[in-house]
Amino acid sequence: MRTYKAAIRKCLVAIAICTTGTVLGFAQSKAETFRYGDFNSWITRNIPESQIIGGNTKTLYEIGPAQTIDGAKAYKNLGNSPWATSNVYAKVMGISKGSCAVMPDTRSGTDKCAKLTTIMERCKAVGLINIDVVVAGSIFLGEMLEPISSTSDPYSKMEMGIPFTRRPKALKFDYKLSIPQNAGRTYSSGFGKKKTLAGQESAEVMVLLQRRWEDADGNLFAKRVGTARVRFGKSTSGWVNGYTLPLMYGDITSDPGYKSYMGLIPAERSYYARNSKGKMVPVKEVGWDSRDATPTHIIVMASAASGDAYTGTIGLTFWIDNIATTY
Questions:
Q1: pLDDT under 50 in the chain at which residues?
Q2: Which helix (H) or strand (E) holds 11?
Q3: Alpha-carbon distance 321 to 300, whole Å?
Q4: Please, which residues have CB within 8 angstroms of residue 122's CB and are 6 or more apart in sequence?
């Protein structure tokens, strides 16, 4: 009898263990990496700059199917890559120039990641042009519109966001950060005097889910469905793997985790997108959507700066890898 009861107890324990394991298995989040979001595949662009500014060849990188592109050519996303970068081919006053603040870096062996750095880009030609521009290395879902012809209205040169109708729980990624000590913050848009600003610069990662629509005149509007945004202000001792950034849905202004920078995008800083007529127009966020709304677009951006355009800490470097949504 004792042997029989012992056998029953062992059987029940085994069932309990199996059942618990099954429940935990279903509870675990499923991660889905964005296309090319492991950053192991890069496009190399060799841009010959104009002779008047030295005639050097500038190497730029894009996230997509591995290949090399030679020549001063406008880039458009290849291989169905959803990613764009702050790297640009510019043609200002007939002068061709390249800028590179995003590049591949090696974690180990053949495993690569994205390296984002804030730099001061200089373009000088006696009697023609003399500008210094702060460029923060950034990657985002969308497209950069080349060639860039000026530094005015920078968001109008970026199509931010891609179609997306799902409701993820979080964004998951690996990161590493190095912030120069006592470096300060600098603003320089290329025209006017450079300014040294107070405060600490941070790297930033954000996810915005929007429900967009278009009116009869081609204007684009959006309500905010989901929000996740974090700023990293301290250097790390190495890689932080599997960082999870939870998404909050609906109006989050009363949520304990709400920060002022998580709010709706001000009209004067609206991101841009193409309307049904193919024209780039601002996407005006006009309010918070309901908690159970279905988005039409997702914006994901990682940057080596967190403030206004043309502002950052020179030398701040932010590595990021394996960007995925979890469900």
A1: 1-27
A2: helix 2-27
A3: 13
A4: 131, 132, 133
